[in-house]
């Protein structure tokens, strides 16, 4: 997200090195970005813990991720307008405060509904941290140092997938799930004090109007539609009003938004940009890819926790190879994106991801960890060579005045894709697990029948339950085999979606093109690229 009229344009630095003043500002932004990005991956290993703690289905607890990403998508377009209106420093500190308060409230949640609500509040703050941070740093560094700037902001992007699951697993093992949120409180307070001292004083000015009507249609529409989809496994049929009613209302609101969005001068999402063929191809490629990759990403820790009976810390360590793979290829992909057309590199990166997913479609209850970690590493290599080049392709052909709107459009599509992916994968997995055979004569404390897979997963996580439910060991083995197959079947869906991504990726540009990223109109601020998170 960019800001266009907060202050007068600053002189372009003569050196491309980041001086002390810029690094001081960068420290604030990196601190906020680490909190926001780590929080997404930290929570991913806690989903099975939430299931046990709140006695909720996987589809239900997945809303702790879906609600957060939907909140991010809601405030991304709001951030640029509000920064113009109220000032970047002031708004950045409000975002930090919202995120920190939301984190504290998450730790106090007594029900899964409360936790989801507080995660939405947390997401409203987290969604503004990255776009505002990019605007602040681009203004401090100037357009000629954007390359070095992106390298600095790449630190939290790489720390997230590596450190998040490990930190979350460790905190849950040595303390409790509450600490994955409480850890944000001291960091948030330090960041607030640092921001007050380090960020330059605001000089806000009025800017273009904000499309409140569009926001009131799109955000509730997406939330209602995904809520209906996520309710399907628990209800068991589309005929139930709790499924079709929110889906129908949500779809109607989204369609109404699409029709309406061509009327305002400054719509929430400028869908007119899809007339640019290369932006369209890049956006479609990214959207399909994100649904598959982000959705399946939630399943990896759940497989290690529920089927293999690993601790949350061990699950985090087992997922780390994916982040290490991305760390190796992301800098290389960033350099290649300026020299080699993305249409010549992204398909090969996608093939690496497809190879990794193919391994997980064959997973069972005893698949060697060396094979699984190797597959995750290969997928990470592909991930590092996919996201940033696609983003570069999406924005490269836009002219100066279009970049802010294009950044908003692509970033929101990324968040929506993540939300759709989380909902679809959780629905698939829950539906597969629910088809497990019930154990005759065995019920839970509420009198509900317990399935073979359900008991096997419970015993893996809490071995003492084996004494309460005296069943043959072969039944537990059969249940684990069924659960592993449920994960494998869900990975087949993700595998198919990544294969589908190859179709739009084949239309990505295969010839070099001039970048318009810094082609600003007279009197405008330099346009900041948007970092995906």
From TrEMBL:
GO molecular function: transmembrane transporter activity
Domain Major facilitator superfamily (MFS) profile: 25-513
Compartments, as annotated in UniProt: Cell membrane
SUPFAM superfamilies on file: MFS general substrate transporter
Transmembrane region(s): 21-46, 58-79, 91-110, 116-137, 149-172, 178-198, 210-229, 241-260, 281-300, 312-333, 345-363, 369-388, 486-508
Superkingdom of origin: Bacteria
Recorded topology in the membrane: Multi-pass membrane protein
Entries under CDD domains matching the protein: MFS_LmrB_MDR_like
Chief site of localization: membrane
Keyword set, alphabetical order: Cell membrane, Membrane, Transmembrane, Transmembrane helix, Transport
Matches recorded under Pfam families: MFS_1
InterPro entries cross-referenced by the UniProt entry: EmrB-like (IPR004638), MFS (IPR011701), MFS_dom (IPR020846), MFS_trans_sf (IPR036259)
GO terms for cellular component: plasma membrane
Protein name (Swiss-Prot/TrEMBL): DHA2 family efflux MFS transporter permease subunit
Naturally occurring in which organism (per UniProt): Micromonospora radicis
